[in-house]
């Protein structure tokens, strides 16, 4: 792994690693994204990504391959205004589990090396997305922090991976960052609404702040690069004003030992779909058979160890049990 990335990451809140993917890997992901766009199942409903706060389809998409459209691509009656393969905003949120090319890259040794270089103990993939940002309809992504949507305590336990599959330019919507903004705490959170009678399933817990445009710096990068994104760094991208696409694959990793995953985040793991562990320094990996039962303390007993936040332990325990027959991860000791 290239040296110095932790120093840059700690200073700026983001790091660019060019040539992270080979040309063949980049093309394989690009082809997989094109295939998803051209083969949307007929039964899929047309969900607009901008409407996610009231959308059960979005809320329940964490363990699926779900399709979300650009607002400008649909008429009021839901019919398409552009060619079908150009209409999508994104596909997510379990590409790293469900689609082989994305799974291969996400679980690669290079990704694990990055996590190790940044000091992660037990990184697990929480969610993944293919972002299209097609010409003409690819909309602006407003300034935000990733921790607003996938909050960890502390927020440093969240890490974003962003890989452009086209050259990301000023014209087609490259990322922009406020360097050093990761040192200011989380500014707002997008959480599950405690008011079960409300039509709003997800709400912001406080008003979203306004950021000065002149504080942002553009980060154009060639395709196949990796942009590492701190959970608290403020970033955005402009709408695609060019005649070319700006496809990207992105996923988020959470450290299940060094952080506590919030129970009111929109995305929640479950017994059937635990977060996928990449490696662990604190767990033991061993061969397990389908006939072996995990003999372990209950989650409540695990939580008596105050060195871990109780919520983290519950997620750890669920993931360990859920992953038992999948990849051989078992929890070592509470």
From TrEMBL:
Segments forming a coiled coil: none
SUPFAM superfamilies from the UniProt entry: Clavaminate synthase-like
Cofactor(s) required for function per UniProt: Fe cation
Keywords (A to Z) from UniProt: Dioxygenase, Iron, Metal-binding, Oxidoreductase
Entry-linked InterPro entries: Phytyl_CoA_dOase-like (IPR008775)
UniProt GO MF annotations: dioxygenase activity; metal ion binding
Protein family according to the UniProt entry: Belongs to the PhyH family. PHYHD1 subfamily.
Protein name in UniProt: Phytanoyl-CoA dioxygenase domain-containing protein 1
């Amino acid at each position: 792994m290239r040296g110095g990335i932790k120093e840059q990451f700690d200073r700026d809140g983001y790091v660019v690693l060019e040539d992270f993917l080979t040309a063949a890997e980049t093309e394989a992901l690009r082809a997989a994204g094109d295939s998803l766009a051209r083969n949307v199942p007929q039964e899929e409903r047309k969900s607009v990504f901008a409407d996610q706060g009231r959308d059960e389809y979005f809320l329940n998409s964490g363990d699926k391959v779900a399709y979300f459209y650009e607002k400008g691509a649909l008429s009021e009656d839901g019919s398409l205004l552009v060619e079908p393969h150009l209409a999508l905003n994104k596909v997510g949120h379990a590409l790293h589990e469900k689609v082989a090319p994305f799974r291969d890259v996400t679980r690669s040794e290079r990704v694990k090396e990055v996590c190790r270089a940044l000091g992660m103990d037990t990184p697990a993939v929480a969610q993944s997305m293919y972002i299209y940002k097609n010409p003409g309809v690819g909309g602006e992504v407003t300034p935000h922090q990733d921790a607003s949507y996938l909050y960890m305590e502390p927020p440093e336990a969240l890490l974003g991976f962003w890989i452009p599959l086209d050259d990301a330019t000023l014209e087609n919507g490259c990322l922009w960052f406020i360097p050093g903004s990761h040192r200011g705490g989380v500014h707002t959170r997008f959480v599950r609404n405690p008011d079960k009678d409300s039509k709003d399933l997800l709400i912001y817990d406080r008003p979203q702040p306004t950021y000065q445009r002149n504080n942002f710096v553009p980060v154009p990068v060639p395709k196949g690069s990796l942009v590492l994104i701190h959970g608290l760094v403020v970033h955005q991208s402009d709408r695609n004003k060019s005649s070319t696409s700006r496809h990207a694959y992105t996923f988020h990793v959470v450290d299940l030992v060094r952080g506590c995953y919030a129970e009111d985040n929109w995305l929640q793991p479950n017994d059937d779909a635990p977060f996928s562990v990449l490696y662990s320094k604190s767990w033991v990996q061993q061969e397990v058979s389908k006939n072996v039962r995990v003999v372990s303390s209950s989650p409540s007993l695990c939580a008596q160890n105050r060195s871990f936040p109780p919520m983290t332990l519950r997620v750890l325990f669920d993931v360990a049990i859920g992953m038992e027959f999948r990849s051989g991860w078992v929890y070592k000791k509470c």
